[in-house]
Amino acid sequence: MSDNNSSNIDTSTEGLLSHSLVLFGALGDLSLRKLMPTLYQLEHAQLLSDDLKIMAVARSAFNIDELKARIKDTLNQYLGAEQLNSESLSRFLKRLHYCQVDLIQAADYAALKEKLDAWHSRMTFYLATPPSLYSDICQHLHSANAINNECRIVVEKPIGHDLASSKVINDKLALYFDESQIFRIDHYLGKETVQNLIALRFANPLFETQWNNQYIDYVEISVAEDVGIEGRWGYFDKAGQMRDMVQNHLLQLLCMVAMDPPSQLTATSIRDEKVKVLRALKPIDPEKVNKHLVLGQYTDGQFQQQPAPGYLNEADAVTNSGTETFIALRAEIANWRWTGTPFYLRTGKRMASKVTEVIIHFKASNHQIFDPKQASITQNQLVIRLQPYESISLQVLTKEQGIDKQMQLRRDPLHLDFAQTQSQARIPDAYERLLLEALKGNQSLFVRRDEVELAWQWCDQIRQAWHSAELELEDYAAGSNGPKQACNMIETHGHRWYEDC
Ligand code: NDP
Predict the structure, then answer these.
(1) 154-173: pLDDT as tens digits
(2) How confident is the model over 225-283, as pLDDT tens digits?
(3) Topology (CATH level 3) of domain 189-425+448-500
(4) Closest ligand 1 atom to the C-alpha of 235?
(5) CATH code of the domain made up of 4-156
(6) Which atom of ligand 1 approaches the CA of 26 most closely?
(7) For ligand 1, mutation pick of 103, 104, 129 (most atoms within 8 Å of CB)
């Protein structure tokens, strides 16, 4: 496939012609909670091509009317009945088809192939299934002769649990699909504000000229979740925050902040620049791991004035686990642009509030003419918030007003709240953009194999370092801002978290 994969998102239906979607795991959580509502929204926005059909694949016995009733209930549940437009709903339900397949049974794929052949359509296979099924699905589709050069495959995280296991999955995919046909999802890349980082950085020379170690003191990337384990204790306990969040979402955000300007807005250019950042990430020195890394696990606490159980007291908790539900770390990028400017990454579960933000802490000027007592506020900060609402705010210093105030400084935000400035536009869910771009064949917002593997390589090294240093888990109460050691860690490097230290 040529690299006509531009990250410019247009709303035309060009490129969608005769591309149909085959959704494996169609009755699973991801499909019902995210993908079906997303497809409905695309339908309602008239962004799906007229001839696009959707094949729901699952192992339960259903007839098509039962399936449609189930999907309608799902849309009511997740979007709200008042949000559904009857014409859009009816158009959407008409696209749905059903095929019962036990995905590990090769023989079951013959019926699927027969139905797909009748469509005379190119296929996008979306694997909303456990990754342990990827290999079977690809192999059986291949044996049934259902894969050709025009097919695409969309796969979800996690791609493995370390470098070795990710290679196994990637090797399997590569047996049947060319890299240009593989779309690995990291849903953070579909978020409007993450897309906006490209516009903010590369369309505003004001920022790009300052975007380096001369002007930026440090960068903070925080992803705090207020929820705990949500019934997924067994899954999460095998992963932990490093593998579940840092390896993918936080490193993708880091890449978007740190990468050099791509020469063009194409998938190859953007992904090449991200790979350069991942290659330049410095391993953490095992001797100094405790100065660069804090691991935590939440204990019993309070959330919204209600008692909240600790990680080991959650439903389904079965072991005295050493899995980290919080991690804060100091990353360094060894290149011309960033040497000397650390990136602090922090993510935790059962924190005080749900917030995802990137904060660029600019350096104070070398020569101060203001009262030295005010030095602590003389840095500008650019706060890029992804959750709970999307906004960008630049903290600037002004004079406190009033005849009695002399030259007393204060920090105020220049604030862009997208819900207000672009109130006519609905902010799309990340999955809407990703599904649309996958259907168009645009890989810009998807993760390339080398990105996944370099990210694992860096994370594996850090995990080995903390295991050999026998780093201890720090306690933090459910509903708090994480362990105090995370504040101590950043403060020993002369920095502070933006919100909560
Ligand atoms: P679920 O377990 O809810 O869904 C998996 C689906 O696969 C189920 O519908 C299940 O069918 C089906 N399945 C399993 N085995 C077979 C089989 N032999 N034949 C036919 N169908 C089978 O998982 P999720 O939806 O939560 O996750 C799917 C993928 O998405 C995973 O890779 C996950 O890591 C990823 N993901 C999920 C997110 C989410 O929010 N849920 C977020 C990010 C990633 P049955 O119902 O019959 O068991």
Answers:
(1) 999 889 999 999 999 999 99
(2) 999 988 889 999 999 999 999 999 999 999 999 999 999 999 999 999 999 999 999 99
(3) Dihydrodipicolinate Reductase; domain 2 (3.30.360)
(4) 34
(5) 3.40.50.720
(6) 9
(7) 129
Calculate helix-pair angle for 430-440, 192-203, nearest 10 degrees: 80
Q: Which atom of ligand 1 is nearest to the CA of 133?
A: 15
Give the residue extent of every domain in the chain.
4-156, 189-425+448-500
249 is catalytic: yes
Instruction: Give the pLDDT confidence score for residue 1 in this predicted structure.
Output: 42
pLDDT digits (tens, 9 = 90+) for 5-38: 554 444 454 444 467 999 999 999 999 999 999 9
Cβ neighbours for 417, distance < 8 A, ≥ 6 positions apart: 389, 391
DSSP code for 33: I
What's the gap in Å between 447 CA and the centre of ligand 1? Answer: 20
Question: Which protein residues are within 6 Å of ligand 1, measured from CB?
Answer: 25, 27-31, 58-60, 102-104, 128-131, 133, 156-158
- The catalytic position among 140, 249, 292, 361 is 249
CB 366 within 8 A of CB 331: no
The pLDDT tens digits for 278-337 are 999 999 999 999 999 999 999 999 998 899 999 999 988 988 899 999 999 999 999 999
Q: Please report, for residues 5, 203, 261, 267, 284, the alpha-carbon distance to residue 200 in angstroms, rounded to integers and kept in the order given.
A: 21, 6, 12, 18, 30
Candidates 26, 27, 43, 30; CA nearest to 439 is 43
Measure the CA–CA gap between 462 and 284, rounded to whole angstroms: 6
pTM: 0.93
Distance, in Å, from the CA atom of 436 to the CA atom of 325, rounded to the nearest integer, reads 33
Structure tokens given for 198: 């490209």
Cis omega (within 30 of 0) for bond into 205: no
